[in-house]
Design brief:
Helix 1 crosses helix 2 (39-48). The chain has 164 residues and is α+β, with helices and mostly antiparallel strands. The chain has a domain at 5-116: Gcn5-related N-acetyltransferase (GNAT) (Aminopeptidase), CATH 3.40.630.30. The chain has helices at residues 14-27, 39-48, 98-112, 127-135, and strands at 5-8, 55-60, 63-72, 82-89, 117-122, 139-150, 153-163. It has a seven-stranded mixed β-sheet with strand order 1-2-3-4-5-7-6.
Length: 164
C-alpha cells in the first residue's frame, strides 16, 4: 500500500480539488449540487476557507487523491463551536481508507481550532460514507425528509454528528 500524506491545501491543489468535487457532483451520491463547478468557483471557495475552516488534502506520489474541509455550520454565534464537514475522494481511491485518514486528521484540526462538535449531512442511500462515519464514532441524529431536489426528485438527507 502506498503512503498517503495529509497536508493543508494550497492554491496549487485547486485543480485537483475541483476535479474530485465535480466527480462527486456527477456521481449523485454526495451532494445536492448538480452543476459542475469551475476553477473560479473553487478558488473563491478555498479563499473562504481560512483560519478555523481548514481544507486538507490526501496525497499519494505527489497527486491529490482526496480532500476534506471544515465548514461553517451557522452564522449565529451560539454555534461557533460546531463545524460542518465535507469529504470527497477521487473515484479511483474510494473504499481504500483515504476517507478515514482524512477524517481522523480533520477531527484533530477541529479540536485545535476549538470546535467541540462536527455535524454532517449525507444521503440515506450512501452506505459507504455512513460506514466511514459510524466507524469513527459518528451517530445518526435523524433524517430531513424531502430536504432537496436532485434530478427532479425529492431527496432525503441524513444528519450525523460527533462530539469531539
Amino acid at each position: 500500500m502506498k503512503t498517503t500524506a495529509i497536508r493543508a491545501a494550497d492554491t496549487g491543489d485547486v485543480k485537483r480539488i475541483l476535479h474530485i468535487y465535480n466527480q462527486g457532483i456527477e456521481d449523485r451520491i454526495a451532494t445536492l449540487e448538480v452543476d459542475q463547478k469551475d476553477i473560479a468557483y473553487m478558488n473563491n471557495w478555498l479563499q473562504q476557507h481560512q483560519d478555523r475552516y481548514a481544507v486538507i488534502v490526501a496525497e499519494q506520489d505527489g497527486v491529490v487523491i482526496g480532500w476534506a474541509s471544515l465548514n461553517p455550520y451557522s452564522q449565529r454565534c451560539a454555534y461557533d463551536g460546531v463545524a460542518d464537514l465535507s469529504i470527497y475522494i477521487d473515484r479511483a481511491f474510494r473504499g481504500k481508507g483515504v476517507g478515514s485518514i482524512l477524517l481522523h486528521r480533520l477531527e484533530e484540526i477541529a479540536k485545535e481550532k476549538d470546535f467541540y462538535k462536527i455535524v454532517l449531512f449525507t444521503f440515506p442511500f450512501n452506505k459507504n460514507s455512513q460506514g466511514l462515519y459510524h466507524k469513527l464514532g459518528y451517530r445518526d441524529v435523524g433524517v430531513f425528509e424531502k430536504q432537496g431536489i436532485l434530478d427532479g426528485k425529492y431527496v432525503d438527507v441524513k444528519i450525523m454528528e460527533k462530539l469531539l
